[in-house]
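Q: Protein A?
A:
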Amino acid sequence: MKINCLGGGPGSMYFAILMKKSYPDAQITIYEQNKHDDTFGFGVVFSDQTMEGFRDADEPTYHAITNSFEHWDDIDIHIKGEVLKSTGHGFAGMSRVKMLILMQERCRELGIEMKFEHRIDNPEELRDCDLLYAADGVNSIARDQWSSEFKPNLDFRPNRFVWLGSDFNFSAFTFHFIESEHGLWRTHCYRYEQDRSTLIIECTDDTFQNTGIGITDEDATVDYVANMLRPYIGDAMIIKNRSHWRQFPNITAETWTFDNVVLAGDAVHTAHFSIGSGTKLAMEDAIALHGALIDTGNVPDGLARYEATYKPEVESLQRSANVSQRWFEEAERYYDTLDPIQFGFSVLTRSLRISHGNLRLRDEGYVDSVDKWFASQAANQSGVNLPEDPPPPPMFTPYKLRDMVLENRIVVSPMCQYSADNGVPDDWHLVHLGSRAMGGAGLIIAEMTNVSEEGRISPGCTGIYSDEHVSAWKRVTDFVHEHTKSKISLQLGHAGRKGSTTLLWDGFDEPLPDGNWPILAASPMPYKPQSQVPKEMDRADMDQVVADYTAATERAEAAGFDMLEVHMAHGYLLNTFVSPLTNQRTDEYGGSLENRMRFPLEVFRAVREKWPEGKPISVRISANDWKDGGTTPVDAVPIADMLYAAGADIIDVSSGQVVSDEEPEYGRLFQTPFSERIRLELGKPTMAVGGISSFEDANSILAGGRADLCVIARAHLFDPYWTRHAAYELDWVGYGKVEWPKQYDTLNRNYVWRFDSAEK
């Protein structure tokens, strides 16, 4: 076997080492344009978990690294004169030059040829082999050479950063958040050997421009950073090394392999330095590809398996890295809004890969301090006395909206059941909603319930447009109030252009085969090509819809609901006015955002006027249309602001389902950043929804200030008692905590049930 490696970084050498061990007769050559000890940067950092992976792959390399690195467990966060310390994280740092030398020695030991100061201008000349491993960095010539095959994408991010060194010995991985006359600075600092540390200094482009420092002016950079860090590191030396102010490149590629060529490391993917090092990811590439080649026994199948199985893992890591990166890009929002202790928790959980529970395993004392702070805030906000030792987990703290006090922060999301007869909810709805209230959620939101017969999504959708509906709904609200501590809300909606469709299980968003009713929208645009074309609403139609919402509001009060939610999301009637993708009007209801919001606000104000003063109203919005030209998370802030000004108490922040050709980026907690943006920029309450599946997620969202309530859908379909089971797992069951319904209390008093055991 003949293998050529383009690029002489740690990832390339590690792949060569692993392959040479498995194929001792293989001819492996590494081509590197720089000198053997010429490298950019100062130190590299690995987590303990990463190091264990290195041990399994090649123990001699693992021991060579571990005998040379500096290890620490703590993270220090400096903010506004405070130092927040969290332990139990486990990091190792070492000199990048030393690591290169150690790996070069291992390559020589195994008989791998290394050609330094050997520039390759045309990577095609290295194709005469079984495998070309192209790990030639961010400025990859291999990626450029075969760009039509790999289809790469480079996105240079807005923040500026610079790599520097220092002889200061940091005792922990250290973040500084420093406010100067030019703006807010963030640092990422760690010791990689005695008397040597890496400093990454980061700021917005505006802050950098305010300094007047040139992008390549290293002397001015060193002077500025030394002065800024003097209160923290004294007169420690600041060291430069091609220390130019850069913008981080997010690199992805549609395809990683082509014929006998594979891209690896920074050539094909990057992950922001706030979540780990490129060296770590490059070495994990080597481990994964080596494993795929060994398992399949040949290059073509090995490359196919590598891309099919490992690429999704890296893309998942990149999504987390992007979340962490955006956190640092927008650090001003957190710095200006959050209390230091909550700010620190937000830093530690920024990528959402470390949760409230995971952080507790690392540092129980730190999380206890966060929970105590959060509980004190909740007690002040709600007027409810809470235990202090131990404090409740964040999800089990109360929350007040107007006169309504929720026992906990968990909300059952409105989920259409398509099971009503002429809009009338029946026993299915009683059991569906009643069981979830019995399950312990603080707030139950009934499915989107339509304000008129023509406003239904399907013939099976619930309504609130007749007195018959009132009595049927009152049966549900009475049960919830009599037998549980939950509150219950009704979501008012009008399907608009997504109306007159089949039941979900008969075809998703498909028009009825017969018996269609007329539908309305902001503009005469069908949802799907085969969908019915809606009528463009005129003023008479608007007046009728306002009257329908007003009447529905009065009926909802008569039915005994504690709260209302007005549905302005997901491509339904009101959302067709909000989104520029569905609103092509040229009158006063189209064009600017203010005009597009005119009619939805008119409806909302009519609802607010009829709804009792002491009862809250939420609004569900689509914060992202997931389509070019549509609503973006930036637009969602003024949308929410207008709704708050009109009397909304909390915004339920969802996204998408506005147009049928959307391109959403699904994933765990994928909509939480939209909630966080609105909450922090406006200082108003929000509900987070979308991909929240565990109590760890809920506690992390709440403690990090990302939302005030967590709205959970599918997990509640799977387990109506989700909240009670979370209380059990968090040891928050019993008097003064989460109590059982009195009908079950005898069982609870006399038996201790274990979900993982048949014993009692």
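Q: Protein B?
A:
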Amino acid sequence: MEQNYDYLVIGSGLAGLTYAIQVAHYGSVALLTKKNRTDANSSWAQGGIAGVLDTEGDSFELHVQDTLTAGAGLCHEDAVQVLVEEGPQRIRELIELGAQFDTAVQPDGHTELSLGREGGHSRNRIVHTADYTGWECEKTLLEAVRRHPNIELFEHYFVTDLIVRDAIEGRMCAGAYALNGQTSETVEFHAKATLLATGGSGQVYLHTTNPLIATGDGVAMAWRAGAEIANMEFVQFHPTTLYHPDARAFLITEALRGEGGILKHEDGEAFMERYHPLKDLAPRDIVARAIVSEMKRRDVPCVFLDATGIDADKIKHHFPTVYERCLSVGIDITTQPIPVVPAQHYQCGGVQTDLNGFTGVGRLYAAGEVACTGVHGANRLASNSLLEAMVYGYRAALHTIKHCNLPLPQMFTRASVGSVPKYFSPFETEGIPEPHTLRTQIQDVMQSNVGIVRTTAELTETETVLKEALRLLDREVIPSVESYEVRNIAQVALIIVQSAKMRHESRGLHYTLDYPDKVESERHDTVVSRTQTATH
């Protein structure tokens, strides 16, 4: 079955929704999401959106510098400049669409946005809605999408691969293949331009704050289509997620530390002053490594975040999600410290793009967590992610409108990537593990060997495991969403491992015992592609 639209958007997070709203003024839009429209990493964001909205106490220069500092020398300064300078306008547009951010009454009686601070920021510049900012932004944009007559939203459509064809102009994306989750029918969506906005790859790891849908689909599809993938060794582990036997990893927002929460051991010893001058407000990579170091030093399974010094009413008002979630497992955070451990949270690398979200494959764009714009470098500054999704989703839309309004060329050498399911006779697949078994094996080895601290020997061991998993997955009898997801998880995991092996230093989120120092000659992006092992 074939469907034809002017524009195709894969993913319903902030980046995809921002792009869809803009291009819809110029043609029809198909917006595909693998689950429900609200199932996106954006919805889970507790923190906020960083933006220079108070120019009296803040400046673009300070926000740029904070981002560059957190990025450990690998941020692209031009990309950061774009983010910081265009960000405030994207925030204002979100407010105009109806987003309700927290406000505070000033001494003179007028009301202003309540600006918070998180780790790595030198000024209060975070707009937020209690501790569910992502959901507030998501529902605001979804309502705008719902109202637009040119946008059709397809729920439960799993995109298996991009349609990539060779044309006179070079390799070009002509749309995507999607599996209808209700009918199991494969549908070809053809479009003048396609945006990848599929989010991150948290499910590569056993412990993650990401939802189950975050299986790295966009990175894997782009890699198969020939796009370049950059800096995937930089995996951000959120320093503080709930540690409890009766609860899955749940993010304890960094804003709690911004309000005065202190990391301690069970006996009350605070330790962050030993690791950074900013103590509990140090950048995430430093805090995460400090916690792991302290857990090893004391041989304990977790540390504790003590927020009992914050006013109880303030906690209940500003952090209702965290408060209720912890209370559901018997922890009253107004009177008890929270047991926490680091867990995978965000991929700083992704599909390499220019400043307009263009991937280098004709008519294919990427924005949001799936993309590597150069903003985050070796470590993402807190609350820059929702901002990046909107800024670069918007820029990708403008570039699409300007450059992709002509119909797709009709004369193609058809060369679709990975679109034809493979079927084998039963005897060829005897002894092959089920996809869910392989998924758990991959997650286990990635958690153990490719976490916050790494070694070359562990990376090499993991590479062997992943190559074997991909070999087995290529012999799957009946393709399914589960098997497609596990293939993507395995492929993205392998890209992470191979990228990590190529970086012979420790920088930002990549820390290896074999190369513990930062090295100036290694100050470059790690870029891999299907046709080229690596470039610097």
